[in-house]
Amino acid sequence: MDKPFDKPCMFSSKNLLISLFFVLLFSSVLRAQYTTTKVKTKHEIYRDSLKQVDYDYIFPILGKGAYKKGFDIPYPVGLMANYMWMEQNLIIDNMQLGLKTDALDIPLTPVDFIQFGENSNSSYAYNVRPDLWILPFLNVYGIFGGGQSHTEVNLTAPISLMSEVDQGLRTAGFGVMGAGGIGPVWFSVDANWTWSKPELLDKAVMVNVLGIRFGHTFTFKNKPERNIALWAGGMRMKMSSETKGEIKLIDALPPETWDRRDELVNNYYDWYNNEATIGQKIIADQVLTPIVERIDAADGDSIVRYGMDKQVQDKWNGVIGGQYQVNKRWMFRTEGGLIGNRKSFLISVNYRFLL
Questions:
Q1: Is the distance from CB of 186 to CB of 217 less than 8 angstroms?
Q2: What are the DSSP calls for 23-34, one per residue?
Q3: pTM of the full predicted structure?
Q4: Closest CA to 82 of 124, 122, 132
């Protein structure tokens, strides 16, 4: 069995990382670390060695006392690299539209009779997450990264129209996480706040993620500092709802829409002449008709302004994951969101060290 008595290798990290997002995501991921005194008889030598550690580092605060009680705590400082893919449906309402051309400057105008079908967002994100254990059970961290987002918006009324938008995004944020144990089961609870700035939006989107995980760690027989952890839990995501931006028509509409623009224009005027109410026609004359005229003229350089309230369809989803801890410094993990409307996949690597 590897000796745990050299000072730089005295404590084991059992880190649990929970995802965080990106919509647009995206960005922010975390796992918890669980420390325990419950060890098998074959690991009593290892536990006794922990009690002999003369821990003289600042963080985590109370770290020396944790060792004296036989707790196996992680190195206090970590640097984690994450890659995450996510797909989920969106709810859109309170639609506003405007238009900017060489001859027109139409401000955002509420168009409350527009109806939507199924809207979705898929994205991938990469980020770096430095973290610090302030206390043996309390971790704080930052999130810095970027990614790419693909959004599909489907209008069903007054005409059928699909818009696809691809854009890059930058993400920054912070979070806090607590961890502990009940018998052989460990748990973690964490919350993080990230601000993602897509290229086409006027302001960054704030995303709040709350994660809860329950799991168990299986320690290797001859190497107590090496283990495999498995967990299950749930993740709640909420983002700021108000969204405003602008985009060229050529970038907002896929090529097949331009190919059938005659059909789209005819359908619009059929609605306008036969189904629209007087109130709807007033709003249509202000903003919808000018936009349709730009589509009819194949003017892809016209800029459409938009505003809306946007939220994820399901705030909660279930996750399962696992981590392989090679030693006190290196951990590799993965997690998947499988239960609920939100689907996700995460892989990450974590390197820990003494401050």
A1: yes
A2: TT--B--EEEE-
A3: 0.81
A4: 124
Give the whole-angstrom CA distance, residue 269 versus residue 333: 55
Per-residue b or e along 36-46, where b marks 16 or more CB atoms closer than 10 Å to that residue's CB: beebeeebeeb
Which pair of tokens denotes residue 240?
């700021």
Residue matched to tokens 């498995």: 230
**Looking at this protein, which amino acid is placed at residue 343?**
K
Report whether 213 contacts 232 (CB < 8 A). Answer: yes
CA 67 to chain centre: 35
Which whole-number Å values give the CA distances from 183 to 40, 199, 215, in the listed order? 13, 48, 11
| 32 phi and psi angles, rounded to 5 deg | -100, 160
Q: Which two tokens stand for residue 113?
A: 């009779």
**Beta bridge mates, 165:** 151
d(CA 351, CA 231): 20
C-alpha dihedral sign at 77, 83, 86, 91: positive
User: What count of Cα atoms within 13 Å lies in the side-chain half-sphere of residue 322?
Assistant: 5
Measured CA to CA, the distance from residue 226 to residue 239 in angstroms comes to 38
Q: Which position has the token pair 């760690």?
A: 217
Q: Are 272 and 281 in contact (CB under 8 A)?
A: yes
pLDDT under 50: residue ranges of the chain: 1-39
Q: What is the pLDDT of residues 145-187, one digit of tens each?
A: 999 999 999 999 999 999 999 999 999 999 999 998 887 899 9
Cα 178 from Cα 32, distance rounded (Å): 7
